Automatic annotation (TrEMBL):
<feature type="transmembrane region" description="Helical">
    <location>
        <begin position="209"/>
        <end position="226"/>
    </location>
</feature>
<feature type="transmembrane region" description="Helical">
    <location>
        <begin position="232"/>
        <end position="249"/>
    </location>
</feature>
<feature type="transmembrane region" description="Helical">
    <location>
        <begin position="439"/>
        <end position="462"/>
    </location>
</feature>
<keyword id="KW-0472">Membrane</keyword>
<feature type="transmembrane region" description="Helical">
    <location>
        <begin position="179"/>
        <end position="197"/>
    </location>
</feature>
<feature type="transmembrane region" description="Helical">
    <location>
        <begin position="79"/>
        <end position="96"/>
    </location>
</feature>
<feature type="transmembrane region" description="Helical">
    <location>
        <begin position="123"/>
        <end position="142"/>
    </location>
</feature>
<feature type="transmembrane region" description="Helical">
    <location>
        <begin position="256"/>
        <end position="280"/>
    </location>
</feature>
<feature type="transmembrane region" description="Helical">
    <location>
        <begin position="46"/>
        <end position="67"/>
    </location>
</feature>
<feature type="transmembrane region" description="Helical">
    <location>
        <begin position="12"/>
        <end position="34"/>
    </location>
</feature>
<feature type="transmembrane region" description="Helical">
    <location>
        <begin position="469"/>
        <end position="487"/>
    </location>
</feature>
<keyword id="KW-1133">Transmembrane helix</keyword>
<feature type="transmembrane region" description="Helical">
    <location>
        <begin position="499"/>
        <end position="517"/>
    </location>
</feature>
<protein>
    <submittedName>
        <fullName>Uncharacterized protein</fullName>
    </submittedName>
</protein>
<keyword id="KW-0812">Transmembrane</keyword>
Length: 527
């Protein structure tokens, strides 16, 4: 197990040292780009390569001895992560430089100065996104009542939360409400968050405390609506939008200490919300009716006894809960440790620290540890069983009429029991970065594919130079955290489900409305 591997006790081979040296060279290259050509950091490919350098290249290089001890062809593993990141960085530097410079220069522009209906364009954009968000959430709540959402369960009945979260999204049969909530949480609210942060900055500088407070209230309301499933990662992801919006507003020219403070401050809303949700006074103010909610989503479960759930004997009730819970994946058990031990109750400390540990730490564990951990499984599977092929990418496989292979489930069921030391859920999904997933599908050819896919992200530059200037910083702030998603999920999934492509289209649509709506005087002026 990688957690038990100590590279200093195990010794460092020459090839292991070479991997560390290559990681150091990449660090120097990124530092030189940041100092000499900072405008290149507006390129999404550079964001992703920088994040991959920190969360993939360095850990894989430091722990290469661990992978060398059990992978049949560790040199291919090294070529995969080193080649993708280093060659990707070398190739992206000369591409689209003029467009990157133009986009960088627009960070200081004001954009449209007046809107068709006489209110400021930034407020109009926020209002439009708020209306679209309410419509999307309304479509979802029309199918899934509030009392059947994961967030409601988290407040009133946390003991059944893993099941409630699955019922509130994955087990909803109609596609429209699922897509509506996903659209709200991954695209509409992040972009709206970026715009609200810019309003908070503007009103904070003019000491308009009432307007600042109004923006904060709107921000918290939007976040709560975006996280009706109760997933821990949503609040943290939106907090990162706050941080990156601030950094782009400053053209990423901030003191590292200021950046760290900004990150901590941006996490405060997420911590505050999870603390309030987890507070004892909110418990037992209602109850999560499993029977009712299962009927809402059209899932029938055989009863273990007659009568409703509340009237059953405690033993039967517990058995029935276990039966229902066994039908769905409990994701938290497969993506993160409990961050607990047998002595934890003796030193629990303040409740807010426990809530932070239970709600925030697993999210960072998933982003920083899991992709590389499961990535090794994908690499080992290819080296033992051969490439899975195009069937591993469901959307493309269906278009081509190729049988679909649920690779994350297949690999999770194969390696999960070995890693965790016990049986895992039959619906386990071992998610990893497209860097490793593509290797499992296509073998060494994945190196060239990965580089091409990373460079393809830079088509967003052509949107950056076209969206209204006041939308650019919020759009960058909302898109930058998506770089982390590319390390957790497959490429098309991030474009379509996690909002990378949708947010770009939303910003372009808002720009089109503000520019071409009748009676609109659109003027771009330098700040």
């Amino acid at each position: 197990m990688i957690a038990e591997y100590n590279p200093f006790e195990s010794g460092i081979t020459g090839f292991h040292a070479l991997n560390i040296l290559l990681a150091m060279v990449t660090s120097v290259l990124l530092f030189l780009i940041f100092v000499k050509a900072r405008y290149l950091f507006i390129k999404p490919s550079v964001w992703l390569l920088a994040v991959s350098h920190v969360l993939v290249q360095w850990p894989a290089a430091l722990f290469f001895g661990y992978y060398q001890s059990w992978l049949p062809r560790p040199i291919e593993f090294s070529a995969l992560f080193q080649g993708t990141i280093i060659l990707g960085l070398v190739l992206t530097v000369p591409l689209f430089r003029p467009t990157a410079k133009l986009a960088w220069a627009r960070l200081g522009a004001k954009g449209v100065t007046n809107s068709p209906i006489g209110i400021s364009p930034d407020i109009l954009a926020i209002s439009i996104l708020a209306v679209v968000n309410v419509v999307a959430i309304g479509l979802y709540l029309a199918e899934v009542p509030l009392q059947c959402t994961g967030l409601y369960s988290l407040v009133t009945s946390p003991d059944v939360f893993p099941l409630a979260r699955e019922i509130s999204l994955k087990l909803v049969k109609p596609a429209l409400p699922r897509y509506a909530l996903t659209l709200a949480s991954s695209s509409i609210v992040p972009l709206m968050t970026g715009l609200l942060v810019m309003q908070i900055i503007k009103h904070g500088r003019t000491q308009s405390f009432g307007a600042t407070l109004s923006c904060l209230i709107c921000l918290i309301a939007a976040w709560l609506l975006a996280d009706l499933t109760g997933a821990k990662g949503v609040f943290v992801a939106l907090s990162l939008v706050v941080t990156f919006t601030f950094l782009w507003w400053r053209r990423i020219s901030v003191n590292p200490l200021v950046a760290a403070i900004a990150l901590i401050c941006s996490l405060l809303p997420a911590i505050a919300i999870t603390t309030v949700i987890g507070a004892a006074p909110f418990r037992d103010r209602g109850s999560y009716d499993i029977d009712f909610c299962l009927n809402v989503v059209g899932l029938s479960i055989p009863r273990l006894s007659n009568g409703n759930l509340k009237a059953e004997q405690p033993a039967l009730q517990e058995r029935r809960k276990e039966l229902i819970a066994s039908l769905v994946i409990k994701q938290d058990e497969t993506i993160a440790p409990s961050f607990d031990d047998e002595k934890s109750h003796e030193r629990e400390g303040p409740k807010y620290l426990k809530i932070l540990k239970d709600n925030i730490m697993p999210v960072f564990y998933r982003a920083a540890v899991v992709p590389l951990q499961t990535g090794g499984w994908f690499v080992h599977h290819e080296q033992m069983q051969g490439p899975i092929g195009i069937g591993g990418i469901p959307r493309i496989a269906r278009l081509l009429g190729v049988p679909v292979v649920d690779a994350p489930n297949l690999i999770g069921r194969t390696y999960g029991p070995v890693y965790y030391g016990h049986e895992v859920s039959p619906t386990i999904s071992a998610s990893t970065s497209f860097i490793f997933a593509n290797y499992a599908y296509f073998g060494p050819l994945a190196i060239a594919m990965n580089i091409a896919l990373i460079l393809l992200l830079d088509i967003a530059l052509f949107a950056f130079v076209r969206v209204n200037a006041f939308l650019l910083v919020p759009l960058l702030g909302a898109l930058t955290p998506v770089s982390f998603k590319f390390l957790e999920a497959e490429y098309l999934t991030v474009w379509l489900t996690h909002g990378y492509g949708v947010m770009i289209l939303l910003a372009l649509a808002l720009t089109f409305f503000l520019k071409y709506c009748p009676h609109n005087a659109a003027v771009e002026a330098k700040a």
